[in-house]
C-alpha cells in the first residue's frame, strides 16, 4: 500500500503521482529507489532537483548489483555524474567490474567525471555534423532523418547533455531551412518492405503467434544471429543478471578463456531413459543452433546418473534423432565420464563444511516443509567416513544420502547430491554403488566441459541458485544458466510415463507409433527433419511456455514435401474399370512428371492398360448436384493419359454392389473437356496404407477439467485406419523405408519400416490440405 511519506518522497524526485504509485507496486524497485533518494537527501542536505531525481530513478530501475547502490548515489548526489550518458557508462562499468574494490580513478575516467562540455563545443560539433549532410538536408528538408544528426553529434561529444545537443540541432536546422512549409507537413509515403524470399532453412513462411500463423519468419539460425537473444559474450558471465561472483570469479574466467579461446560452447544433455519428443526438437535446435550461429561447438552429453532406468536403445535413438535433425555433436560425452572427478569434488565439499551425510528417508524429505535434518551439523570427519562407507556399499538403498547445505529458490532445503543404488551401470559396471543427482551433476559437468551458455527449460529456474552455489562452493568455473519456455502441442501426450501407459494399454504400438509426437514417431510418419526445424524456427525462443496447434507443424511438413516428395498415384478403395475400346494392342507407357510444377525434375513411367482402377468414391450412379466425377452421361479424364472415359455399363454382384464399370475412351482433345480429371492405377502393386488421425479427442487430454476421466479415456478409436489391399502404381516398387511420395489427390505418404520385398507399407504423413475442422 502506498504511504503518504513514500508518495511524497517519490514525487519529490520529479515523478508524477501516477508513476510514483506504479513504482510503489514494484517492491524491489521502490525499496531501491527509497534507499537511493534517502541517501541523496542526506548528502545534499536539501530537496532533490528533478534532473538528479531522474538519474536516481534510472539508477534504481537499472542497477542489478545492489552492493554498488550507495557508491553510485554518492556520485549522482555530488553532481559528479549529472547526465544520462554518464549514468549509462557508470552502470556498464560496475557490471563489468563485479569485484571490490572499485578503482575510482579508472571509474571516473570511464564515466566522464569532471569532463565539461561547453555550449561552444556543442555548437561546433552540430555544425560539423550538419555540414557533412548539408546537400541531402537541403533536398529532403524536414523529411531528413534528424536522428542521424543527433547520433553523430552525441558520438562526437560522448558526455554532452542530450537535451542541449537536440536544442542546438533544432536551432541550426531551422537557421538552414527556415520555418516548415506546407510540403514539409505532408506525411511521408510508406515504402513497402522487401519480402524476405529465403532464409537459411528455406522459404520464409508464417510466424507463429499465440498459436496461430501470421506474417513471415526467419530461420532459427537467423534469429540467433540477430537481436532475438542478447546473451553475454564468453568470459563475460558476470554481466548476466543474477550471476553470483566470488573473489575467484575473474581468475577462473580468465583461465576459462585461455582454455576455450573465447569460443561459444553449449550442450544438449538428455537423460537416456526415454525417447526424444517435439519439445526436445526445440532444445536441440536452440543449443546446436546457437553454437553454430556463433561459430561455436555443442556437446551431446548423456545424463546417465539413473542406471536402473537407462537402456542402450535410448542412447542410440537419441543420437540418431540429433543427427537426423541435421546436427553433428562436437563430442558425445556422458556424465559417467566424470564420476571420479564428481566424487572427489563431493569429498572436497564435505571438507569445506558444505555437505553432510544424512539418514532421513525419502518419504521424510517429501512435501513443502520437511523437517530439517538432525545430522546437518555432524562433524566433518564423521561425514567423510560415512560417505566413504556409502561408496564401499555399507549402507542399503535409502539408508544414507549426501546432502548440500543450501536453500533453493523454491524453498527446498539441502538438496541431495549422492544416493545409494545397487544397480550396475551400463558403462561403469559395478564400480559404483553411489550415484550423483541432477542437482549435483549438471552444473559441474557444464563446468568441466567449459560450457559458456547452459540453456535449459523454464522448470529448471528453481535450480539456478544451486547451480551457481555449487560451482562457487568448489571454486570452479561457473557457467551461466539461461531458461526458456518449453514447447508443447495440443492433442498430445509426451511424458515418458504416460507413453508407457499408452503402450501397455495397447493404444499405440511403441515409442515410434506415428500417432505420437516423439521424434522417432514423427520420423516414422514421414515428417522431414527440415520441417521440424522450420517449425521450431517459427515458434522461436521465448521465456513463456508455448503450446502450439498440430496443424501448424503439419503446415511446415507440407511446405517441405511439396518440393521434395515425387508424385505417384494410389487408390485406397478400388473400383475396376474396363476400357472396351482401348486404343492399343498392348499397354501404353505413360510419362508422369515427378513434380508437375517443375518438369525439369524428371519423369517416371506407369503402364496404361485396358483395365484400370479408380477410387470407388470417384463414381456415382446417382450423383448429387455439383458432383463432377464419373457418372451416367458425365465423362471424366484420366490424369496424365490424355484420355477421357465415358460410362457404358455397370456390373454388379448379387448383393447389388458395383463390381466393375465398362467404359469407352476418347482423346481428351477430340471433344468437350471433362469437368474433372481423376487419378487411377493400372497393373498396380498391392500395398498396405495406414491412415492416421489425432490420438485424442480433446486439446488438453491431461487436463482433469477438460477430460475428467484421464487421458486414457480420451482416446480416439478412429485414430488409425489400415487399408490392407490398397493399390499403388509400379513407379514406387523400389521404394525404401522413409522414402516419401505425394499420392495424387490423397496426401503425402512415407514408406514404413514394416515394409518387405514386394509388400510395401505406407503411412499417411499429412493430407494435401488441412481439414478445416481441425483448425
TrEMBL record:
Is Ubl conjugation one of the keywords?
no
* Cited function: Glutamine--tRNA ligase. Plays a critical role in brain development.
All copies of domain tRNA synthetases class I (E and Q) anti-codon binding, residue ranges: 677-752
EC number annotated for this UniProt entry: 6.1.1.18
Domain Glutamyl/glutaminyl-tRNA synthetase class Ib catalytic residues, every copy: 263-562
One Pfam family this sequence matches: tRNA_synt_1c_R2
Where's the Glutamyl/glutaminyl-tRNA synthetase class Ib anti-codon binding domain?
565-665
Task: Give any Gene Ontology cellular component.
Answer: cytosol
What is said about its interaction partners and assembly?
A: Monomer. Part of a multisubunit complex that groups tRNA ligases for Arg (RARS1), Asp (DARS1), Gln (QARS1), Ile (IARS1), Leu (LARS1), Lys (KARS1), Met (MARS1) the bifunctional ligase for Glu and Pro (EPRS1) and the auxiliary subunits AIMP1/p43, AIMP2/p38 and EEF1E1/p18. Interacts with RARS1. Part of a complex composed of RARS1, QARS1 and AIMP1.
- Please give the catalytic activity noted in the UniProt record: tRNA(Gln) + L-glutamine + ATP = L-glutaminyl-tRNA(Gln) + AMP + diphosphate
Q: What is this protein called?
A: Glutamine--tRNA ligase
- Which InterPro entries does this entry report, sorted A to Z? aa-tRNA-synth_I_CS, Gln-tRNA-synth, Gln-tRNA-synth_Ib_RNA-bd_2, Gln-tRNA-synth_Ib_RNA-bd_N, Gln-tRNA-synth_Ib_RNA-bd_N_1, Gln-tRNA-synth_Ib_RNA-bd_N_2, Gln/Glu-tRNA_Ligase, Glu/Gln-tRNA-synth
Q: Which GO terms describe its biological process?
A: brain development; glutaminyl-tRNA aminoacylation; negative regulation of apoptotic signaling pathway; negative regulation of DNA-templated transcription; negative regulation of stress-activated MAPK cascade
Compartments where found: Cytoplasm, Cytosol
Q: Which UniProt keywords apply?
A: Acetylation, Aminoacyl-tRNA synthetase, ATP-binding, Cytoplasm, Ligase, Nucleotide-binding, Phosphoprotein, Protein biosynthesis
Q: Which residues form the Glutaminyl-tRNA synthetase class Ib non-specific RNA-binding domain?
A: 6-162, 165-254
Any GO molecular function: ATP binding
Q: Which family does it belong to?
A: Belongs to the class-I aminoacyl-tRNA synthetase family.
Amino acid at each position: 500500500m502506498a504511504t503518504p511519506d513514500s508518495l511524497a518522497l517519490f514525487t519529490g524526485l520529479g515523478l508524477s503521482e501516477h508513476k510514483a504509485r506504479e513504482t510503489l507496486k514494484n517492491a524491489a524497485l521502490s525499496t531501491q529507489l527509497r534507499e537511493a533518494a534517502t541517501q541523496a537527501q542526506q548528502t545534499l542536505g536539501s530537496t532533490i532537483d528533478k534532473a538528479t531525481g531522474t538519474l536516481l530513478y534510472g539508477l534504481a530501475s537499472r542497477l542489478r548489483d545492489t552492493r554498488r547502490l550507495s557508491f553510485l548515489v554518492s556520485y549522482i548526489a555530488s553532481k559528479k555524474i549529472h547526465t544520462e550518458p554518464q549514468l549509462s557508462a557508470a552502470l556498464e562499468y560496475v557490471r563489468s567490474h563485479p569485484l571490490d574494490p572499485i578503482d575510482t580513478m579508472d571509474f571516473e575516467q570511464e564515466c566522464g567525471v569532471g569532463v565539461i562540455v561547453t555550449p561552444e563545443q556543442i555548437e561546433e560539433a552540430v555544425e560539423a555534423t550538419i555540414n557533412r549532410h548539408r546537400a541531402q538536408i537541403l533536398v529532403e528538408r524536414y523529411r531528413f532523418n534528424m536522428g542521424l544528426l543527433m547520433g553523430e553529434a552525441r558520438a562526437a561529444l560522448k558526455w554532452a547533455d542530450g537535451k542541449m545537443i537536440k536544442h542546438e540541432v533544432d536551432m541550426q536546422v531551422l537557421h538552414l531551412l527556415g520555418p516548415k512549409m506546407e510540403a514539409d507537413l505532408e506525411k511521408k509515403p510508406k515504402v513497402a518492405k522487401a519480402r524476405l524470399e529465403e532464409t537459411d532453412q528455406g522459404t520464409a513462411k508464417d510466424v507463429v503467434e499465440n498459436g496461430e500463423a501470421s506474417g513471415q519468419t526467419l530461420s532459427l539460425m537467423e534469429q540467433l544471429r540477430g537481436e532475438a537473444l542478447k546473451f553475454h559474450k564468453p568470459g563475460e558471465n558476470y554481466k548476466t543478471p543474477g550471476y553470483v561472483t566470488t573473489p575467484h570469479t575473474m581468475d577462473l574466467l580468465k583461465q576459462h578463456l585461455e582454455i576455450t579461446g573465447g569460443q561459444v560452447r553449449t550442450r544438449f544433455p538428455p537423460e537416456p531413459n526415454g525417447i526424444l519428443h517435439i519439445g526436445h526438437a526445440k532444445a536441440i535446435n536452440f543449443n546446436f543452433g546457437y553454437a553454430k550461429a556463433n561459430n561455436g561447438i555443442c556437446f551431446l552429453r548423456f545424463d546417465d546418473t539413473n542406471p536402473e532406468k537407462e537402456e542402450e536403445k535410448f542412447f542410440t535413438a537419441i543420437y540418431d534423432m540429433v543427427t537426423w535433425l541435421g546436427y553433428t555433436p562436437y563430442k558425445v560425452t556422458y556424465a559417467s565420464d566424470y564420476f571420479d572427478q564428481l566424487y572427489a569434488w563431493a569429498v572436497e565439499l564435505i571438507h569445506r563444511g558444505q555437505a553432510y551425510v544424512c539418514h532421513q528417508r525419502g518419504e521424510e524429505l517429501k512435501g513443502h516443509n520437511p523437517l530439517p535434518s538432525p545430522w546437518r551439523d555432524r562433524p566433518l570427519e564423521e561425514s567423510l567416513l560415512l560417505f566413504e562407507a556409502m561408496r564401499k556399499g555399507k549402507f542399503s538403498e535409502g539408508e544414507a544420502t549426501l546432502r548440500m547445505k543450501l536453500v533453493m529458490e523454491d524453498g527446498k532445503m539441502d538438496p541431495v547430491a549422492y544416493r545409494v543404488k545397487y544397480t550396475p551401470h551400463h558403462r561403469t559396471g559395478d564400480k559404483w554403488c553411489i550415484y550423483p543427482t541432477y542437482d549435483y551433476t549438471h552444473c559441474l559437468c557444464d563446468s568441466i566441459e567449459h560450457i559458456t551458455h547452459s540453456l535449459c527449460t523454464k522448470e529448471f529456474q528453481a535450480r539456478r541458485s544451486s547451480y551457481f552455489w555449487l560451482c562457487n562452493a568448489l571454486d570452479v568455473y561457473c557457467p551461466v544458466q539461461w531458461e526458456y519456455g518449453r514447447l508443447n502441442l495440443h492433442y498430445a501426450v509426451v511424458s515418458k510415463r504416460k507413453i508407457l501407459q499408452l503402450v501397455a494399454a495397447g493404444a499405440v504400438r511403441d515409442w515410434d507409433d506415428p500417432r505420437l509426437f516423439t521424434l522417432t514417431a514423427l520420423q516414422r510418419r514421414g515428417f522431414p527433419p527440415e520441417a521440424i526445424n522450420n517449425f521450431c524456427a517459427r515458434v522461436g525462443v521465448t521465456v513463456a511456455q508455448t503450446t502450439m496447434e498440430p496443424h501448424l507443424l503439419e503446415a511446415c511438413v507440407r511446405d517441405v514435401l511439396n518440393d521434395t516428395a515425387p508424385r505417384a498415384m494410389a487408390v485406397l478403395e478400388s473400383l475396376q474399370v474396363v476400357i472396351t475400346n482401348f486404343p492399343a494392342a498392348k499397354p501404353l507407357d505413360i510419362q508422369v512428371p515427378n513434380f508437375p510444377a517443375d518438369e525439369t525434375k524428371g519423369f517416371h513411367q506407369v503402364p496404361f492398360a485396358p483395365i484400370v482402377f479408380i477410387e470407388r468414391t470417384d463414381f456415382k450412379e446417382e450423383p448429387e448436384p455439383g458432383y463432377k466425377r464419373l457418372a451416367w452421361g458425365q465423362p471424366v479424364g484420366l490424369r496424365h493419359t490424355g484420355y477421357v472415359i465415358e460410362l457404358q455399363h455397370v456390373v454388379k454382384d448379387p448383393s447389388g454392389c458395383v463390381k466393375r464399370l465398362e467404359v469407352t475412351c476418347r482423346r481428351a482433345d477430340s471433344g468437350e473437356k471433362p469437368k474433372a480429371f481423376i487419378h487411377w492405377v493400372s497393373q498396380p502393386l498391392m500395398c498396405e496404407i495406414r491412415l492416421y488421425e489425432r490420438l485424442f479427442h480433446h486439446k488438453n487430454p491431461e487436463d482433469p477439467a477438460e477430460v475428467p476421466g484421464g487421458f486414457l479415456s480420451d482416446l480416439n478409436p478412429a485414430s488409425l485406419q489400415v487399408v490392407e489391399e490398397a493399390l499403388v502404381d509400379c513407379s514406387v516398387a523400389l521404394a525404401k523405408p522413409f522414402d516419401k511420395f505425394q499420392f495424387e489427390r490423397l496426401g503425402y505418404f512415407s514408406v514404413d519400416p514394416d515394409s518387405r520385398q514386394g509388400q510395401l507399407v505406407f503411412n499417411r504423413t499429412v493430407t494435401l490440405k488441412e481439414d478445416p475442422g481441425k483448425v
